[in-house]
Amino acid sequence: MAVAGLIFSNIHNSSVPELTSVRTIASIPFGCRYRLIDFPLSAMVNSGVTKIGVIAHNNYQSLMDHIGTGKDWDLARRSGGIRILPPYITAYNSANGGKLYTTRLEALMGVTNFIARCTEDHVVLSDCDSVCSVNLRDVISAHEKSGADVTVITRTVRKDDVLPSEDATVVECDVNGRVIKFAGCTNNFDEAEISTNIVVAKRTFLLDIINDAASHGYTKFYLEALANRLEHARINAYHFDGVFLQIGSLVSYYKASMQLLTSDVRNELFNAPEKMVYTKLRNSSPTVYQSGSTVKNSLVADGCCIEGTVENSIIFRGVHVSRGAVVKNSILLQDTYVGTDTALNCVITDKNVVIRDGRNLSGHESVPFFLSKGSMI
Q1: What is the distance between the alpha carbons of residues 175 and 97, in angstroms, rounded to a whole number?
Q2: In a domain, 377, yes or no
């Protein structure tokens, strides 16, 4: 079955303003060497999707630098491949006097031409605010066998869980897995089935609901465009219960990152051959662990220099931890410099941060201490 892909790179930027002030949510670094877009992009490539459009909005220079020609995902192709769909060339943008989209449905209206020109029968839609181990090949196969117009991947959340995002959608199904209702998510539930915002749809059906939404002034993908088709279309749910880490705030980014220190989560995300995660290659020297350094239960990328102590932390490329420094329960993004005799606990640094000698910075897992890109303290 021929399938194209569409990835929303900016939809959830407002969820993590600390990290998206200079980049899209798709470009947020995660897990020492990856960006959040690597996970939906790799999932599509692993399932045989070789034509992918990335819908951009603003601040997407970092995203373009990361994706490049797409060769690291085997998408540097004469036919198909990966394509950035910037807002200034979209039909939706032109029709609205230069106004940029604000919702998923408006973003789809803006790339109608891309969808119409695809020759594939089906389209996979995915956001960039999550890290999951779903096998899209299985989902696509189930979608094809069922004859559904749309298949929505869902997961179960409980009352004590952190809600996936502000616009989370509850999906109610019958015993056969057919969706009978979409609803907004509230706190008044013990357990609910939530959309992961990963969807497989027939291309012609997707075009139909986009055109219908434009003519009726709809702006909501689930609650209006799909909800109004429930009686006449076959819309199914595909339940997924594997690793699914949602990035809906700086706190959830911190907690999701810390889960990578758990071997079970790490193995499910990265060690299954059919779920390989690809990213932009960077040839760096191996990390240097100086005499007297200590590293416990941490992920450390290449190109680092560790002279001090690192515990329960995630260290990106090019980070320097000086002698006498103690870094615990922290996330240090690329090229962070930690001075001598410095103590960090529950700290998140963006790229190119300098922490001078003797500083003592501490946050809490519920309120991590954040340092913005290029700052010095």
Answers
A1: 46
A2: no
Please state the pTM of the whole predicted model.
0.92
DSSP 188-221: --SEEEEEEEEEEEEHHHHHHHHHHHHHHT---I
Q: Which residues touch 250 (CB under 8 Å, ≥6 apart)?
A: 16, 18, 19, 348, 368, 370
Structure tokens given for 118? 């695809």
Instruction: Tell me which residue range forms the domain holding 154.
Output: 3-275
328 and 187 in a single domain? The answer is no
Q: What is the dihedral of CA 240, 242, 247, 250, to 10 degrees?
A: 150
Residue 251's closest CA among 367, 162, 373, 131? 367
pLDDT tens for each residue of 14-32: 889 999 988 999 999 999 9
**Nearest Cα residue to 258 out of 138, 159, 364, 107:** 364
Q: Does residue 34 register a pLDDT over 50?
A: yes
Number of structural domains (the chain) is 2
Any idea which residue has 């109608």 for tokens?
112
Residue where a domain stops, chosen among 251, 275, 299: 275
pLDDT in tens, 86-105: 875 444 445 555 556 778 88
Q: How far apart are CA 306 and CA 101, in angstroms?
A: 44
Q: Does 123 fall in a domain? A: yes
Whether 252 and 166 map to the same domain: the answer is yes
Residue 192 has pLDDT above 90, yes or no: no
Q: How far apart are CA 294 and CA 98, in angstroms?
A: 54
Question: Is residue 102 assigned to a domain?
Answer: yes
Residue 312 belongs to domain with CATH number: 2.160.10.10
Query: Does residue 112 share a domain with residue 56?
Result: yes
Tokens standing for residue 268: 């499910």
Residues 187 and 314 placed together within one structural domain of the fold: no
Where does a domain end: 235, 253, 275? Answer: 275
Beta bridge partners of 360: 343
Tens digit of each residue's pLDDT (9 = 90 or more) over 297-347: 999 999 999 999 999 999 999 999 999 999 999 999 999 999 999 999 999
What is the spatial distance between Cα 345 and Cα 239, in angstroms, rounded to a whole number? Answer: 37
Claim to verify: residue 117 and residue 27 sit in the same structural domain: yes
Contact 67, 81 (CB under 8 A): no
Does residue 335 share a domain with residue 192?
A: no
